[in-house]
Design a protein that fits this description.
Blueprint lengths: L13 E3 L16 E4 L3 H10 L3 E3 L9 E4 L14 E4 L11 H5 L4 E8 L2 E8 L3 H18 L4 E4 L8 E9 L4 H10 L7 E5 L1 H4 L3 H7 L4 E3 L10 H17 L16 H10 L3 E2 L11 E3 L4 E3 L7 H10 L7 H21 L4 E5 L1 H5 L3 H12 L4 E3 L2 H13 L1 E6 L4 E7 L6 E7 L2 E7 L3 E4 L18 E2 L6 H9 L15 H14 L1
Parallel strand pairs: 2-3, 2-4, 4-5, 9-10, 9-15, 9-16, 10-11, 12-14
Antiparallel strand pairs: 1-5, 6-7, 6-22, 8-19, 13-14, 17-18, 18-21, 19-20
Helix pairs in contact: 4-12, 7-8, 9-10, 10-12
């Protein structure tokens, strides 16, 4: 049966091809949601949320709710009992298109007030967590209003409700700071991930040898994120080769300065990098897949000790305020970690050894102590997190309602991890382990809890009009990290950069 034109029978965002029936008599599964011609941003949000979904295909229906853009032609054929949810209507209530916002790759400068210091950083222009929450709240109301349920796979292996990792970016090598940092994290190595800039460590094989056995990713060869795919490929591949020569097999990648652009994404795809981590794309958000599911993005919290120390230097006055900056950083991290953990969201912190964590090792020790006190929080590294997220994405569930409750059937589980099923009623959630291919539960028999709302400090945009000099610097990708002789001649931007670099250096 073809999808009928919109009529007065539409209920909010939904339309059923038959009269509304009691869901208990509906033979079609309540989940998975069936997707046809939906925006990529919605696909990403549903995958992050862990909502069971499958693509539409002709034949026997696999789910009761079909999501599609009802403006598109041709329209999918429907079976009796199916309900259509018009994804175009989900845009209502948003100032900007939420589907496009979730795919936005732009950045801007922002400011936080941290312990009296004005801390600045360049991060993703769109708060993707906030957009995703608003979008899925509207979808949830539509599904529940049509007799559906909100059930999802937990973001972390059962029984964990959150996850913690401390990411350490080794931009350069300084013997005393490097040694102090490794001593500070002793005993907690499993909850850390290290990203190494190879150029700064290539001449120090003994230092690299101390990292063997830890979770190591590449930070490139030179500490710069380039604009073109070709330059990023050369830089990342060279950095990986240098670490491999030292007996280290890096697994993921983190872009210098947290930057992200199309040239970087193309390079990561060409090199088959399994995951990357850039707050220039997203921050304070659950992981999500890019490049058709081949690349996992792991967003982190962008406030590190370094930016707070820089803010302390900018503050007027002759006094050394580094001690205040240390205390402000720790206070902010503790608040962020506790609120995110209580809300069931990830806690991903980061920092740099040289002049920061190595100079103030008590900061790293205290951050790891804070993590140890977080209840039901998985302390792990990014390699293990990547393995879990891929296993979670491979779980295929369907849900039917019976007289006493619901039955969840799994075609595949998240082995070897234990999958958690979250069933939501209002603002409360019950989490149930799914240890086999079939799970039956009655909502009345479950124990519910109400997750806290994240109370992290949100930044304020400080973008200023860009002058001619700024536009030129951005156009030529100005930087002074790459040796002049290694800047290629392959485009006018690089030719201009080489010329200006030689003038400045001389």
């Amino acid at each position: 049966m073809s999808l009928p034109a919109r009529s007065t029978r539409w209920n909010l965002l939904t339309h059923s091809v038959t009269d509304r029936r009691d869901v208990s008599s509906d033979p079609l599964p309540l989940l998975p949601l069936i997707l046809e011609n939906v925006p990529p941003g919605l696909r990403r949000a549903l995958a992050q949320e862990g909502i069971p979904c499958r693509d539409y295909r002709p034949g026997p229906p696999e789910g009761r709710f079909l999501l599609c853009d009802c403006r598109a032609l041709p329209r999918p054929s429907l079976d009796a009992g199916q309900v259509v949810i018009d994804t175009n209507q989900l845009r209502q209530g948003s100032a900007d298109d939420p589907f496009e916002a979730l795919l936005d790759e732009r950045t801007h400068d922002v400011r936080w007030d941290i312990g009296g210091f004005s801390v600045t950083e360049t991060v993703a222009r769109i708060d993707k967590r906030q957009v995703r929450r608003g979008l899925l709240a509207r979808l949830r109301r539509a599904i529940e209003g049509a007799g559906g349920i909100w059930l999802r796979t937990a973001a972390f292996p059962y029984p964990y409700r959150s996850v913690f990792n401390f990411r350490i970016d080794h931009d350069d090598y300084h013997a005393a700071d490097f040694d102090a940092t490794l001593k500070a994290l002793a005993g907690c190595e499993a909850a850390t991930t290290h990203f190494v800039t190879a150029a700064g460590f290539q001449q120090f094989p003994a230092a690299l040898a101390r990292l063997r056995g830890m979770d190591i990713g590449s930070h490139g060869y030179w500490h710069h994120t380039y604009k073109t795919a070709e330059e990023n490929i050369r830089n990342i591949f060279r950095g990986i080769e240098a670490l491999q020569t030292a007996g280290i097999e890096p697994f993921g990648f983190a872009a210098p300065h947290g930057r992200f652009n199309g040239g970087l994404l193309a390079a990561l795809a060409a090199l088959g990098i399994p995951y990357s981590s850039e707050f220039g794309l997203a921050y304070d958000e659950t992981p999500f897949f890019l490049d058709g599911g081949r690349l996992l993005q792991i967003p982190i919290h962008p406030i590190c000790l370094g930016v707070v120390l820089e803010a302390a230097v900018r503050r007027p006055g002759p006094a050394d305020r580094s001690g205040e900056a240390v205390r402000a950083t720790l206070g902010h991290w503790e608040q962020h970690a506790r609120t995110c953990s209580q809300a069931g969201e990830p806690v991903f912190l980061y920092g740099h050894p040289t002049g920061r964590l190595g100079r103030y090792p008590e900061v790293l020790r205290r951050a790891l102590q804070i993590a140890s006190g977080l209840n039901a929080t998985w302390k792990t590294n990014f390699r293990e997190l990547h393995a879990w997220w891929r296993a979670r994405a491979g779980a295929r569930l369907s849900v039917r309602q019976d007289v006493d409750g619901f039955t969840v059937v799994a075609d595949s589980l998240a082995a070897p991890y234990r999958l958690g099923i979250e069933y939501w009623q209002g603002e409360e959630v019950a989490v149930i382990p799914m240890d086999g291919p079939r799970l039956r539960f009655s909502p009345a028999a479950l124990n519910y809890e109400q997750p806290a709302t994240p109370a992290t400090v949100r930044p304020v945009g400080i973008d200023r009009p860009e002058g001619l000099r700024g536009r030129i610097r951005r156009w030529i990708d100005w930087e002074r990290v790459t040796p002049v002789d290694e800047i290629p001649w392959d485009n006018w931007q690089n030719v201009t950069k080489r010329t200006l670099r030689r003038m400045v250096d001389s």
